[in-house]
Every structure is written in C-alpha cells, then in structure tokens.
Amino acid sequence: MILDIVILAAGQGTRMRSALPKVLHPVAGKPMLGHALDTARALGPRKIHVVIGHGADKVRECLDADDINWVMQAEQLGTGHAVAQALPHIQNADQILVLYGDVPLLRVDTLRSLSQQAGSQALGLLTVNMQDPSGYGRIIRDAAGRVQAIVEQKDASTEQLRVTEGNTGIMALPGNQAAQWLNGLSNDNAQSEYYLTDVVALAVSQSVPVEVSQPASELEVMGANNRQQLAVLERAWQSIQSLRLMTEGVTLADPERLDVRGEVTVGRDIFVDINVVLEGRVVIEDNVQIGPHCVIINSVVRAGSVIKAFSHLEGTEVGEDCDVGPYARLRPGTRLQRGAKIGNFVETKKADVGEGAKINHLSYVGDAFVGKGANIGAGTITCNYDGVNKFVTRIGEGAFIGSNSALVAPVEIGAGATTAAGSTVTQDVPAQALAVARSRQRNIEKWKRPIKTS
Ligand code: UD1
Ligand code: CA
Q: Which of the seven top EC classes does this enzyme belong to (predicted)?
C-alpha cells in the first residue's frame, strides 16, 4: 500500500504565548512535531508532507530531513484546506494519513491499526470517548450506530453536543477519493473554515465505508494548546518511560522523579535514585547504581559502575566497575577504563583514564591519557590550553602525581614516575623518576611577627 502522511502544523498556537511556533515546543526534550514525525516514520510512508504556516522557517530549519516535503499554507483557512495544500504533491497514494504536529503521544500501534483497518477503500477515523468532549468535533451516528458525520462543537445542536464520542482529528483518507472530497469542501459553517471533518458526510453519501478505531488512552490523542497542557503531556510521557524502565528491570526510587529526554537502553538490576535526568542516547548496563540528582547525557555506563549523587556526565563512556562522584563532571570525550575512580569536584574532558586509575579530589584533567593504576593527587590540573591551542598530557602507568601539581601540556609523565606536591611540571619526567618543580622551603628562625603601629 502506498502511504502518504500529512502532518498539520501551520497553526500559531496563540495560547502558548511564545515566540516559538507551537509545534516546536518540546515534550521530553524533543519538539512535539518531532514526535509526530517519529510516529509517522514508523509506518514507512512514501513521503511525509508537513503543512506549515506560522513560524514556517523556524519549523523547517529545526526538523528538516530528506523524507519531508514542506508544504506552505500561507493562510490558515481550516484543516480541510490545510490537507488540500499537500494534495498536488501526492500522486496515486492508496491512503493519506492525517496527523497533527501538536499531538506527540500517539502510539505507532494505534496509528497502524487505524491505517490497516481503513486500507485503500475506506475512510478511517480515530475517535475517543470522553468525559468532557467540549471543544471537540462530535461523531454523529445513526440509530444503527453507523457513523454519519462529524459536527464541530460550534456548529452542533444541543442534542449533538450531548454526544461524548469525540473526533481526535486523526484520519485515514482513501487515496482515490481524497482530492475529490477536499476540493468539494465549503466553508459555510460557524467558523467559515474548510473543515476536514466534512469528508465524513461526503463518504457516507457516496457509500464509502467508514472504519472507526480508538486509542488505548485519551492521552495518546491529546494536543497541547497551552503550557498547562504541555506539562500534562510531559508528565504522561515521563510516566510511560518510567513504567518501561521498571518493566525492563530497573528499580526507580521514585518513578515520578526520573526524566528521560531521549533514548535510554538499560540492562537489569539497575538502581536509579531520585531526580535523575537522562538525555540523548544513554546506555546503562547491568547492576549500575545512579545516585540522586545525576544528569547523564549521551553516555554509556558499563556494568557494575556506581555514579554517586550530583554527578554530571556528557559524551562519556564509563567502563565496568568504575566509581564516579559525588559531584563529578565528566565532559565529552571522557573514557574511563574498568575500575577507574573519579571523586568529588573533578572535571574531565577528552580524557582516557586507564584501568584502576584514580582521580579522587578537586582536579581538572583534559586532553589527557592517564595510564593504568596511576594516582592523580588532589588539586592536580592539566594546563592544556595556552589561550590559543590545546595540548595533550600523557601520564604513564602507575605514575603518582602529587597534590596540587600543574602539568603544563604538552608534557609526558613516564610510567611509575612521581611528581612532588605543588610542582609545576613543564618538562617530561622519565619513567620511575621524581620531579620536584617548586621552590625550596626556607625557614627563618625566631621570626618576629609585625606589631601594630598606632
Ligand atoms: C479539529 C477538528 C475537530 C477535532 C479537533 C481535535 C476540524 C474541522 N476539526 O478541531 O473535529 O475534535 O481538531 O483536536 O478538523 N491547522 C492547520 N491549518 C489550518 C487549520 C488548522 O495547519 O488551516 C492545524 C492546527 O495548527 C492544529 C490542527 O490543524 O494543529 C487542528 O486545528 P484546530 O483549528 O485546532 O482544529 P480544532 O478546532 O481543534
Ligand atoms: Ca485544536
């Protein structure tokens, strides 16, 4: 079946009170339209047509991709008009599926069954039974329960308003009928808009079958018109993520205090404490423990490692059985080999830290290779930057860097070498040697302290 998908995203979203077009407001760190695109892609369409209008340039710039055909709708004359703008770009489709750029929680399964039920010959509607359907178009059925039409709230009679089956707006149009229906719409209604929903009565009048399906939950089809609704969607998304992680074998100290903004892959018997944020692509292997208030972005944490409270990891690979934090900051390009230990107030960047090496306190290690079993004393700084260029520091296996050493790169500390505390090391240190690079202590006997003059 040749499937084309049209996503409506031209509206302004006035109630967001924002310079950002509504569909770019994020849920779980991703624009709402990005979620709709992901769902659309999962169905393997021939093309995705996104109808844009308000903030069109920003929307396109933010989400442009090869499989998207951007369609401009200069004036928002209604949902039917919006879909019609995409029609000239759609040839011989079996089905045209209409989605909304501000409905991010729709599940692929729900959409797939709508699409499959409708096929190429029927009109497919996704409807939802609601406690409070106000604002929604109502599904009008005859005495036998057959769908007759959709009537918009503003056009509905008192009796029609009592109907609790609402139109989600998501719809599958048979490709061979779409053009004829959409071109035949009128805007003779309460809002003077070309309603997409009017195709239902047209289908019925032409004896085209109407297939109705429903989502598993109302949240799936909920859109965000304001920031309150956006927050509801965000929490709903997060609760889905937490449930999934628990199902896969992760213990969460509090499922309501974990935020996932990306794709997280987990092993089993992982413990995640409260207020953790996982962003981008994160992989967490078996038996990892993550302490409270950690932020982990685009990183891998291998089996058995412990990330203690308030640590911030980005673009980092933590090997097996490592110990990180509390208060560690691992920046992009950090790679910890098995059993390495990074303690409090340590910042690393582009640092390869060897097996079992330790950087326990108050250090900056950047553009560096730290050998297996090396010990980096408290307050050690790799001086990697001269204000213009960056240079590399190499620290050999089993080296011992005394506290408060400044290692001025480019510099190499040989295997098993030692630097004396407080050294400013500007030259390479041979293996096994001791480098002392600090002024010698002088003691002045019987020193008289100054006395207060007046
Ligand atoms: C629409 C449906 C209604 C349904 C509701 C679900 C119609 C006529 N009504 O009503 O039955 O219950 O959605 O939320 O379809 N848009 C465009 N261009 C336009 C008009 C709209 O891109 O010219 C986009 C908007 O940005 C929005 C979506 O289409 O994302 C829905 O438009 P909106 O005007 O909010 O439709 P509703 O009145 O909510
Ligand atoms: Ca709406």
A: transferase
